[in-house]
Design a protein that fits this description.
By secondary structure, the protein is an alpha+beta fold. It contains four helices and nine strands.
């Protein structure tokens, strides 16, 4: 069966509209907001601060801890149950692994850097939006970073490879979703997951689609940080 036209009318290699801001949560050490299509994520960073309970402290380096939550009525699908969920824990762990290679908290021994991400509205691509928002927030907080982490998904619906799936594509019975994150400048992969079955050749093509989109995402994230820290001329 052929997939001739995307549900939202985009081209098969076209990203949904994106926007981002830094410093959106005043009481946080650093914060960021990232929106792609109808999926938006707010991230707040607190720390470095002393870690409790103390038995989890590391005398050798700081600890990065991520917390991912979707608000109850945020989803394009079923209502999300409030509170901690198995999926939220899984994505929190995924975020930690994706962001950790970008930051240097080796001097923050016995301390923790907490990243809290809330999604008030979702339409697929939530973990990728969360990673982008968190990366902006970490940079806004002044955490030492060697690069920004950019994230987006590709996938397949019926016979077509697609960039940046929306909800109807992500939930399609014959759909495949491939979220991916990388350090922009070095192109080092920090996340690669796959939900569904796809050939190795198609996976390679999907990864090339994602790599080609990273510059667009990076430019949006970098512009948000520049806008926050630019010196306004009188």
């Amino acid at each position: 069966m052929a997939y001739e036209k995307r549900f939202d009318g985009r081209g098969f290699e076209e990203i949904r509209p994106m926007s981002a801001k830094a410093g959106v949560i005043k009481r946080a050490t650093g914060s960021g907001w990232f929106k792609i299509g109808n999926t938006e994520a707010y991230a707040a960073v607190y720390g470095p601060r002393e870690m409790f309970p103390r038995f989890k402290q590391s005398a050798e380096a700081g600890v990065l801890r991520c917390h991912y939550t979707m608000m109850p009525f945020s989803s394009a699908g079923d209502r999300v149950r409030p509170g901690t969920s198995r999926r939220g824990k899984e994505i929190s762990a995924v975020m930690e692994r994706a962001l950790r290679p970008a930051i240097d908290i080796s001097d923050f021994n016995n301390s923790v850097v907490d990243v809290f991400v809330e999604l008030p509205q979702t339409d697929a691509g939530t973990r990728c939006a969360a990673i982008c928002a968190a990366s902006i927030a970490l940079a806004d907080a002044g955490i030492p970073m060697k690069d920004l982490v950019c994230a987006i998904s590709a996938g397949k619906v019926e016979d077509k490879l697609l960039l940046d799936l929306e909800y109807n594509e992500d939930s399609h019975e014959n759909g495949v979703d491939i979220p991916m994150a990388m350090l922009h400048n070095s192109k080092e992969l920090t996340l690669l997951q796959m939900d569904g079955e796809i050939s190795s050749e198609e996976l390679g093509k999907a990864m090339e689609l994602i790599k080609g989109a990273m510059d667009q995402i990076y430019d949006v994230m970098k512009s948000a940080l520049k806008a926050k820290f630019e010196v306004k001329q009188e």
